């Protein structure tokens, strides 16, 4: 247990900050950070200074430090993490927790200062299509450095743990990403897009090659279903890949762009006929956890990570990475509505204790307390 006379002091860096919720890491900082404070941890989160118009020193008991960075697509995160790490090493923090394997080399700074560290390394960044060439080489090298320079490596799935062991001979601890499945939304919220309950398939994710939206969309257009395919997500920049998908000539395709209202997003999940998951390179995926919690029938790309999350087909069906297989799984889904209904009814049971945020928080506290003793 944490001693009341001396609270455990933890610094978190590598995200855009708090309470800025943009992606998986920022959501983790919010869910984990607020729980850490409730359990008596003295927490500091490092924030990207340019993203915050207002800069309070503390929000919800979490101390906030605003660090500048070089504002560019490739340098903003790295420069922010570099300066944040120096600041954290000069602070009173007992443990520094870093996210994103791109920050692997900065573990050297903490080594020099003698600060205990842990890093959550995320997915197989070095083989993502968006990091071709030099970017991919950097991510591989940085991930390797992380295994040498940080005191504790954390993976969010058993399959990712195996990969780190095989590639880098690096032991790690598995702590999954958490889920909040309790939000029930008004089903009438989907009227905004003129949708009907179970009258559409759903994709949620950025329109990038990693998520295989092109494969799913092109397979869908070959199918004979009268249902729509709703695509929630976009990219925050002009992009030829995304534009090509948005211009596919099929009246059944509906692109909503970003849906930031959590109730509207929940309604889209909860009322779809099936949710398509094409994510390929990550470990525990937040969108998949939402799909399980919101009672979706899940059709997932056949990867080791998706097999782990869906317990080898217990909570979803798999398709191979080709357009014909996407068409065939849609045909199968259309022909077996009772089986789809069963998947929807059973999917919340896939959110085992492993994916509970309170359980996740307790696991992180155990890691931080162990590191602080060193």
TrEMBL record:
<dbReference type="InterPro" id="IPR050194">
    <property type="entry name" value="Glycosyltransferase_grp1"/>
</dbReference>
<dbReference type="InterPro" id="IPR015393">
    <property type="entry name" value="DUF1972"/>
</dbReference>
<keyword id="KW-0808">Transferase</keyword>
<protein>
    <submittedName>
        <fullName>Glycosyltransferase</fullName>
        <ecNumber>2.4.-.-</ecNumber>
    </submittedName>
</protein>
<feature type="domain" description="Glycosyl transferase family 1">
    <location>
        <begin position="192"/>
        <end position="347"/>
    </location>
</feature>
<dbReference type="InterPro" id="IPR001296">
    <property type="entry name" value="Glyco_trans_1"/>
</dbReference>
<dbReference type="GO" id="GO:0016757">
    <property type="term" value="F:glycosyltransferase activity"/>
</dbReference>
<feature type="domain" description="DUF1972">
    <location>
        <begin position="10"/>
        <end position="179"/>
    </location>
</feature>
<keyword id="KW-0328">Glycosyltransferase</keyword>
<dbReference type="Pfam" id="PF09314">
    <property type="entry name" value="DUF1972"/>
</dbReference>
<dbReference type="Pfam" id="PF00534">
    <property type="entry name" value="Glycos_transf_1"/>
</dbReference>
